[in-house]
Amino acid sequence: MKAAVVVFPGSNCDRDCKVAIERSTGAAVTMVWHQETALPDGLDLIVLPGGFSYGDYLRAGAMAALSPVVAAVRAAAKRGVPVAGVCNGFQILCEAGMLPGALLRNAALKYVCKPVVLELTNLQTRFTAAFGDKREARMMIGNGEGAYFADEATLDRLEGEGQVVFRYRDNPNGSVRAIAGIVSGEGNVLGLMPHPDRAFEDDLGSADGALLFQSVMASA
Amino acid sequence: MKATVHVFLKTGVLDVQGKAVENALHGLGWNGVADVRVGRVIEFELASADEPAARAEVEAMCQRLLANPVIEGYRVRMG
Fold first, then answer.
1. What's the rounded Cα separation, in Å, for the pair A84 and A192?
2. pTM, two decimal places
């Protein structure tokens, strides 16, 4: 099993993601610099980590979305390789047009950093299969621009197609319809604001994030 | 030719910064203030003398990078 974590200037959860994937799945994780134009062969998962790529200049994720490596990530996603964007990674996937919608400034204008309870609204995805019959997961959030937004027609389509995967039980940032994570129509691109990479062992307060990585590897 | 681009959140997208500024202005006694929007101004020089063509180029820049059409609208001023 092989995974890659993309490193942008300003990423700060890249190593967390590497350790989380290694400890929860045993996969070999390669770090890939954003200037690379190709990814390693045979990847079972590509992660765009959290952080503040390019200092959030212009809009969070806007600059990173134009990085050479994102073209390679887009091509891999088209071939069906699972891609997960966590926090800033979610913002990058939206800015790159790989997921619908956008992330806005939090409703309370505050950076919110705390554990949250998530409702699992689709257990049939390749990112959630290992959750079994769990209906809730606990993960940490840490974001200032984490309020998910999309127009009503897009939201109805996302819900109708089962693309909403995680929903906040207590909406911490003003996300529309309390959406915390979505998948692409093809089901292999996931974006979520909560950090599975900060919740992969009981010592961290929750091990639910490990189930996400285990789901992807089990589907490989 | 100089280009000036104003980027604002679309109507219908809650502008929490605008709301906070509006509340602060009310707090200072300017109670007649309403609908505050906080946006961003981007200025640059463009190597082109043909205004319609330059404007079309700037509009394309807005669509591709300067604004996020999902949440933001923009106004372009040339010259």
1. 8
2. 0.95
